[in-house]
Amino acid sequence: MNLTTPETPHAGTPKPRAARAAAKAQDGAASAPPAVAPGVASVSQLTAKLAEYLSPSELKKVKEAYRFSDEMHLGQVRKSGEPYISHPIAVAEICADWKLDVQAIMAALLHDVMEDQDVKKDELIERFGAPVATLVDGLSKLEKIEFQSQIEAQAENFRKMLLAMASDVRVILIKLADRLHNMRTLEHMVPAKKRRIAAETMEVYVPIAHRLGLNNIYRELQDLSFAHLYPLRYRTLSKAVKSARGNRREVVKKILESVKNTLAIAGLQAEVYGREKTLYGIYKKMRNKHLSFSQVLDVYGFRVVVDSFANCYVALGTLHSLYKPMPGKFKDYIAIRKLNGYQSLHTTLIGPYGTPVEFQIRTQEMHRTAESGVAAHWLYKTGDSNMSDLQQKTHAWLQSLLDIQQQTGDSAEFLEHVKVDLFPDSVYVFTPKSKIIALPRGATALDFAYTIHTGIGDHTVSVKINNEPASLRTELRNGDIVEIVTDPASRPSPTWLSFVRTGKARSAIRHHLRTINLNESVELGRELLAQALVALNIKPDLPAPAVEKLLNESSAKSMDELYADIGVGKRMAALVARHIFGLIDDELASLPSHQHHAPSELDPVTIYGSEGVSVQLAPCCLPIPGDQIIGQLRRDQGLIVHTSDCMGAKRLRGKEPDRWIAVQWGAELNRRFDCRIRLLITNEKGILARVAAEIGEADANITYVGMDEDHEHVMTQLRFTIQVKDRVHLAHLIRNLRRVSGVTRVERERT
Predict the structure, then answer these.
(1) For residues 310 and 366, is the Cβ–Cβ distance under 8 A?
(2) Active site includes 307?
(3) How far is CA 71 from the centre of its chain?
(4) CATH code, residues 10-229
(5) Which of 59, 113, 491, 613 is the most exposed place for a label (fewest CB within 10 A)?
(6) pLDDT digits (tens, 9 = 90+) for 467-518
């Protein structure tokens, strides 16, 4: 993901201030701009739209912003050959369609002047006022800061944009308008850049548009991204839809006439019109359900817009009397609206010729919100008692971004947390007082606790779901009633990170783990790193240049923060020491250069199994002491240990060979390790008890048991997850199990 401005303009005769824009233009640009006369871009169409709702004094301010932007971008042209100023005008037109205020329109016209022309924020404040300057600043990227990696730069740009959005939603509305126009004109870019920008749009901007209820933009961005990511599939599907459009025209016409007549007879005033599913929507359905195009019957749907809330349900009953409803295909998003404020009744009916037809039934107000989302209500303030429910929900989500930022150290972690919350699928559960809470699909009871309040999540000890005790890791389902039991003495556990789903929960847990016993963690980390450095023949007291370089490359703000991360298990001392080994010069070491190890000769990292969250045993192969092992370094997950013959590890190694290091088991391991075994047994009385008894006598502990029976109930496959000391212990257990009567085969299982 790269949060860049897709359209990179060529420079004609750049002014000194436009030097950065000229340099930027070389990225993927042709040797000369297309032979198109630049001309002067007109703002008459924009002015006509704005005149519908802005006052003359406000229009004057917009024209001032236009003139300044035009002057700053003088000499720049887009790859299409058009003057660059045509892009800010187009962005402002999209914002004008949403009836955004004068400050937002001015910011849309000025949105690239800080980034491309090095205009300072102070100058914008002096010319156009602080609100406009703040909006433009929130839209500008951080190109002046030198980042250690492209991923870090991308994450920081995204973080800045979302935090600016949290204080003023107009930032993201302008940004979405900017991205929409760039996607509409993406055909002038080179193919590789098209794919990269389209992938970023699908990954970041499409979910944000959906989260804010901007369904028109959401659908258009999806289709535009699809067209550039998979051009052949897009063209093929587009051709098939056009062909089907002719074949199904009579069916659509017949349904429209029948529905209009039936609703009129029932005395309902309603607008009825057909709608075609987006190409990406059809493609996604074909891919997810493994269907051919001919099997996707509901390419067309119908929308019924009525005049009141109550008539939505009257219209539903009328339609159900006209065509038979399909069982399980009714959803009431009016009673329980979607997370982004969307409301409609959805029902699928069996139409003429047995074709499934989807209907959406809503009021005019619901329709306006469904199409424009938060843009229909963009102006809201904290504490405004007149805020709509949608505004309040959006405001709460934006404020949660600030909460996550306060608890999160680096931008990549912030991005990880926020992207989790952008998934559109949601489940709706209830508090004991019947308040509806929306959560991402797959969210657990613990996520629910953190959604209510961070303090409740931190002190959670147990949960009841539908008045029955349940595990904190239980995934919630629609309609669950969730009750959280807390204890002031309870604190978050590192194991919670393995199953929570929401960004807010993950960031709160990590924040707590980072801050508990901070002084002790710093001292422990200092000692662990000193030991690791001595093992590599390096002096623990590092010189200032090495410290500065280490902090820059590790994204830590201070050595104390680095020590604390080591002390709580977020970083491994041995791995940080290896990093330092690569930074220092020979004369900084405690031994002469000829006595140093070469990097390739460094001893393997020793694994004791008690390192905490910084070392994890891969769930795919579950290594145990005695296995040959290898380690994979993963960002934010530390070291993942696999067996050397793990097929998953072999595939990952081929993709990222530089992330793998040598590891070995320690000499003293004072814990048990999970391992999976599979037994094939005859289905006879008492066999499970005999097997379990044998496992117990071998001093192994059972943590999971599963059973798969064949159709004849003759043979049964038992699956156990057991805890053993090492490979020798496992081999002894397997030998004993093979002697149990009724057991025909025993083997270690790996996925």
Answers:
(1) no
(2) no
(3) 39
(4) 1.10.3210.10
(5) 491
(6) 888 889 888 887 788 999 998 888 888 778 878 888 788 888 877 776 765 6
CATH number, domain 673-748 = 3.30.70.260
pLDDT digits (tens, 9 = 90+) for 643-696: 999 988 888 888 777 677 788 888 777 778 999 999 998 888 888 889 999 998
- Given the residues 70, 82, 116, 611, the one annotated as active site: 116
Cα 377 vs. chain centroid, distance in angstroms? 25
Q: Which of 225, 223, 178, 224 is nearest to 198 (CA)?
A: 225
**Residue extents of the structural domains in the chain:** 10-229, 234-374, 389-515, 604-671, 673-748
Topology (CATH) of 389-515: Ubiquitin-like (UB roll) (3.10.20)
Burial 425-448 (b: 16+ CB within 10 A, else e): ebbbbbeeeeeebbbbeebbbbbb
- CA dist 49 and 105 (Å) reads 11
Measured CA to CA, the distance from residue 367 to residue 387 in angstroms comes to 19
For 70, residues 6+ apart whose C-beta sits below 8 A from its C-beta are 41, 85
DSSP structure class, residue 497: G
Quickly count: other Cβ atoms within 10 Å of residue 278's Cβ.
16
Choosing from 7, 115, 168, 410, the catalytic residue is 115
Cβ pair 286, 299 in contact under 8 A: no
Q: Give me the sheet containing 270-276, strands edge to edge.
A: 270-276, 300-306, 356-363, 345-350, 324-332
Q: Contact, 463 vs 487, CB < 8 A?
A: no
How do the residues of the chain divide into helix, strand and coil, expressed in percent and rounded to 5? 50, 15, 30
- φ, ψ at 631 (rounded to 5°): -115, 140
Question: Which residues does 71 contact at the CB level (< 8 Å), separation at least 6?
Answer: none
Token output for 24 = 């930027």
Q: For residues 306-330, give the mean pLDDT.
A: 89
pLDDT, residue 675, reads: 93
Q: Is the predicted pLDDT of residue 106 greater than 90, yes or no?
A: yes
DSSP characters for 679-737?
Answer: EEEE--TTHHHHHHHHHHHTT-EEEEEEEEE-TTSSEEEEEEEEEESSHHHHHHHHHHH
Backbone angles phi, psi at 674, to 5 degrees: -70, 145
| 116 has catalytic annotation | yes
**Assigned token pair, 477:** 């389902």
Q: Phi-psi bin for 626: left (phi > 0), alpha (psi -120 to 50), beta?
A: left
Q: Does domain 234-374 have CATH number 3.30.460.10?
A: yes
Closest listed residue to residue 305, CA positions, set 357, 262, 360: 360
| Rounded Cα–Cα distance for residues 217 and 360 (Å) | 19
